[in-house]
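Each field is listed here:
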Amino acid sequence: MNKVKVAVIGVGNLGQHHVRIYYNMRDSVVLSYIVDIDVSKLEKFKKQYNVNVETDFRKVLPEIDAVSLVVPTPLHYKMAKEILLAGKHLLVEKPITTEISQAEELVKIAKEKNLILQVGHVERFNPVIQTVETYITSPRFIESIRLGSFDPRVADTDVVLDLMIHDIDIVLSFVKSELHSVEAYGSKVFTQKYDIVKSRLRFKNGCICDLTASRISMNKYRVMRIFQQDSYISLDFMRQQTKIYRKKKDIVTSPSEIELIRPKIFKEEPLKLELQYFIKSIIENQPPKVTAEHARDALGVAIEILNCLETNND
């Protein structure tokens, strides 16, 4: 396969960036179609990118190799299933679905048809995460704080599935242990869904993770702190910066025996790296970095958190 013919389905706030990035990946991608139910949006993109447009996604499937599905979460399962059954590689935005059984079915279809099914947990492609991965050995405690301002576009989705799921996915990739228990507390402030949530995850290997997600803050804030037996790692997703404090000896007796490491980070747009990896996976027929199984597991933890919230608020 020389170039991958791609369609972007859904050109809202995020989908428009999928279009922009694919359009500029001319060495490996042909942006074949843009699909949306909003005709006025399609006219705008047609003029800007000189690309085919369509309101019915089913009509474009025979003409393309792969899809970026960037539609509201409740539509993920139904549309993703049709796309996979049509034999098309798929990148679906997170969360993969709203139910574990649905995610399992998509995993099964993709395997049976030998298709790439990647899920848009974009923070895994943040250069700061890719940089600190080599320093992660055996986390004992992880604290994550992800704050943002209110966005009416996601008012029908809990903050757990909207924001916290990024950190759930990252934590699962770091800890590599079965979940033992979940505690969660939250509040519905601006919507009928949870807008702010604090959760504690305990893993069977002893690691504890405290996660905070809020969409009622004035400013964006995305940080994670990781504590290990020999080191403390702090990272900032937005600034793409990290500091690593690591002891030089088993027993520290003076500050000079602690080293500060500031790894060089080559800053890049995470979404661009994510889409490049998706296309590379298709061309080279290699597993994606964030598989459907990874996304299913993150969804499972998110659902446990939501169930805990409902129990606590009964």
Remarks:
- The CA atoms of residues 177 and 193 lie 30 Å apart.
